[in-house]
Amino acid sequence: MKITFLGTSHGVQAADRYCQSILVETEKGGYLIDAGAPVMDCLIRLNFDLRKLKAVFITHSHNDHMDGIFGLLSLPLWYYTQMDFDVFLPEQKAIGCICGYLQLSGGLKPSDRVRLHTVEGREVYQDDEMAVSAFGTGHIKGRPAYGYLLEAEGKKLYISGDLDGETIDYPAFLEETAVDAFVVECAHFSAERLVKRLENCKARRVIVVHVWPVANYDILRRAAAGLPGDLILPNDGEIVMI
Ligand SMILES: [Zn+2]
Ligand SMILES: [Zn+2]
Q1: Strand partners, 152
Q2: Which ligand is nearest to the CA of 163?
Q3: CA of 163 to the centre of ligand 2 (A)
Q4: Residue 187 CA, ligand 2 centroid: distance in Å
Q5: Distance 74 CA to ligand 1 centre (A)
Q6: Residues within 5 Å of ion ligand 2 by Cβ?
């Protein structure tokens, strides 16, 4: 499984960082978690074969996780007509907004090649290589937000999305199961609290993104030796193989 960090910034982009988007590739497919970066531009610059994109999973409806979805959805509807993929959104409201934009932008609407769904239940997606499950977080009070577990090629990857700042509520199974990589945010709680919470985490690699304030990078680097798994702090464009 190949993980490319298209955008690693927190809620605000910087000169060298887009907002959150992560491309996960298997041998045959490509999957996006979040679309905060200008995802379509990023995929084209990577020379990614757009026909490989199979599904997009949005963790929650904040702009830093969704801004890039409009280009990602409008271009396949009139230009890249060989693209064929599913998009999973946390709530029906998001689908309404996207459909409104597509209509405004060119009289476009979702089609049998660009399919929009809301996340329902635990098991969200399955194809012949990849299975994706959703785990709710309390990041937005009274509204849905999710982290996603991706399982393919004998590997497990968990991506936290944004979490509840009080409880750092990533799922308990990460303390029972040794996933190959755990991508976690660090913007809604201090780095010290995250490090403390990670003490019992069994992930082989902990990859921290969405870091704010940036002084947290130094705290995380200093704490790396005391963490059970390897700590990775990726920049935009960085690739992690698991
Ligand atoms: Zn965010
Ligand atoms: Zn958020």
Answers
A1: 130, 155
A2: 2
A3: 8
A4: 9
A5: 23
A6: 62, 162
Q: How many CB atoms are closer than 10 A to CB 47?
A: 7
67: its two tokens: 């801004």
Q: How remote is the CA of residue 150 from the centroid of ligand 1, in Å? A: 20
pTM of the predicted model as reported, rounded to 2 decimal places: 0.98
b (16+ CB within 10 A) / e for 69-108: bbbbbbbbbeebeebbbbbbbbbeebbebbeeebeeeeeb
Please give the CATH superfamily to which domain 2-241 belongs. Answer: Ribonuclease Z/Hydroxyacylglutathione hydrolase-like (3.60.15.10)
Mean pLDDT confidence for 208-213: 97
Residue 75 pLDDT more than 90? yes
153-158 mean pLDDT = 98
Instruction: Round to whole Å and give the CA distance between 174 and 201.
Output: 6
